[in-house]
Amino acid sequence: MSQSYSDLEIYQQSYDLFLATHRFSMQLPKHEKYELGSQVRRSADSVNSNIVEGYGRRRYKREFIRYLVFSQASNDETINHLKKVGDLYPQFAQEAGILEQRYIILGKQLNRFIQYVIQHWKTQPTSP
């Protein structure tokens, strides 16, 4: 079992993707930075933040799984936002597509980790 959320590969991947997505979104046209750009930044942040919050609740298996599912849903939302960016702004389509593919891979990793937690996670006894 990992000692910290930062030891989890899904955390590391989601953090790196958040940074890349944030930087990418800041290249959008000014009016879009605060519309679709803001949405993609928030959903990318949510992927990462829900892993962290879930890990903080890892003692309670159901809560841990719940937050991992939230993370996976935010991952899907981020993919959808990136698809919109690529379709609306052809000049950003290639970079949006690369990020989409990275989020698709992360989604598969999240799914595998959720299945691992469901099948193998042992809750820790609560301390008095």
From TrEMBL:
Segments forming a coiled coil? none
Q: According to its UniProt record, what is one Pfam family this protein matches?
A: 23S_rRNA_IVP
Q: Which InterPro entries match?
A: 23S_rRNA-intervening_sequence, 23S_rRNA_IVS_sf
Q: What are the boundaries of the signal sequence? A: none
Q: What is the name attached to this protein's record?
A: Four helix bundle protein
